[in-house]
Amino acid sequence: MNIQNHQFLLDLVKAKMPFGKYKNVFLVDIPEAYFVWFKNKGFPPGKLGQQMASMYEIKLNGLEEIIRNIK
To answer: Reduced to 3 states, what is the DSSP secondary structure of residue 57?
Structure first.
């Protein structure tokens, strides 16, 4: 794992939703259905969108325990 991927993962672990129904909730603690909705509508641009798309894939594949263990 290179340093950029390592930093992205560490940032993902600490990331919280900055708006909406799940404002201030860690991304890993948001239900998968929320990410599925965004997947269909489009993730926001920038870092948050990348984090949400990554969390979608993590949850889709049942890997959120890995994120929780890092947290």
So the answer is: helix
Extended strands (E) in the chain: none
Place of tokens 């708006």: 19
Cα 54 to Cα 19, 65, distances in angstroms: 18, 14
Length of the chain: 71
Digit-coded pLDDT (tens) for 16-63: 999 999 999 999 999 999 999 999 999 999 999 999 999 999 999 999
Cα torsion for 26, 31, 37, 38, to the nearest 10°? 20
DSSP secondary structure code for residue 19 in this structure: S
